[in-house]
Amino acid sequence: MTSHSPPPTDDPPAVPPGDAESSPPTDGALRDQFGRSVGSLRISITDRCDLRCVYCMPETGTKWLPKMSMLRVEEYLRLVRIAVELGVRKIRITGGEPLLHPRLHELIRSMRAIPGIRDLAMTTNGVALAENAASLKAAGLDRVNVSLDSIERSGFTAITRRDRLPAVFRGLDAAARVGLRPVKINTVVIRNYNEAAVLDLAKLARTRPYQVRFIEYMPLDAQRRWELNKVVSASEIRARISAHWPLERIDGEDDRAPAQLYRFRDGAGTFGIIASVTEPFCTSCDRIRISADGKIRSCLFALEETDLRHLLRSGAADAEIEKLLRRAVWHKWEGHAIQTRRFVQPEGGMSYFGG
Ligand code: SAM
Ligand code: SF4
User: Fold this and answer.
1) For the chain, which terminus, N or C, has the lower number of CB atoms within 10 Å?
2) Is residue 10 domain-resident?
3) 190 lines ligand 1 (CB under 6 A)
4) Left if phi > 0, otherwise alpha if psi is -120 to 50, otherwise beta: which for 11?
5) Which of 73-87, 182-196, 244-258 has the lowest mean pLDDT?
6) Residue 128's domain spans which residues?
7) How much distance in Å is there from the Cα of 125 to the middle of ligand 2?
8) CB 156 within 8 A of CB 201
């Protein structure tokens, strides 16, 4: 264990549960028992992927969701329309790899037509982005986050188990060129794996029009190989970068956004750190997720999900769907407990319930 990774502790209490018996409000925005409201919905539109990142999926043997159990475009649209009526303003399409979805453009075009969405974004591995960037922009997508954990071809291939780095670079170029901006890069840093990415990607943030976000490695890998000592913490990332380029912290536009933002003092760009493990931001979390098979996940680390698909497919009225959404959000727990002995890793990896 390094000095940057605090040891597990049982103190403070891991997950103040809220009152399981209390009922959610019947009107107003979607909110929970801890004073948080939901402004952001992340939708996983597939669990399939063309990469096999070591921190997310196993190399082989993934059990895919049956096609019949996955939501249809019309079902996603209905959910989004209801969520927007309840105050959601930001939609992020994710997966699995969303670029593999055969009706992605249609989905984006129809979502764009729903009044009230302020930000329509997508998280992608970028492999098929170059050939889709212009048409996605035309369909109404605002911006993309592209995952990139190494700018070295061998390092990229080791992490993703696929030799696709040149395609991702072409995708990044295309996204910036067609105006899917700001183009953000998500970089997960794992000890003894891709620590060199910290300086390599910081340099990229200084020289190219990309906003890099370093993400702490979270216990959400399907192979359950996560260990606290593999987490390269936010404080270590800051220290490594500031030893080369002096930094200053800046305020973001949205104080509910998860990234801490920094500016290089010499004016050459900015970057962010998402410190989910060592500096959690649960108290300002405004997100919920929907998995590709229609389960609401009120927290990335939640152990329980609420099934919406059965309602969508049983002729339920919008009011019933709203009621279920309100209940799932109301019972969102106060925060995760990763650094305690009581933490239990949820089933499935990020490719299932969407990052
Ligand atoms: N396939 C797309 C991609 O890779 O961008 C979208 C889905 S992926 C699950 C969404 C994000 O989750 C990616 O940025 C990925 O790096 C991140 N992610 C996956 N597993 C993670 C883990 N164990 N810890 C931290 N981030 C993780
Ligand atoms: Fe696929 Fe994204 Fe998971 Fe990598 S992180 S395996 S690209 S879903």
Assistant:
1) N
2) no
3) no
4) beta
5) 244-258
6) 40-353
7) 7
8) no
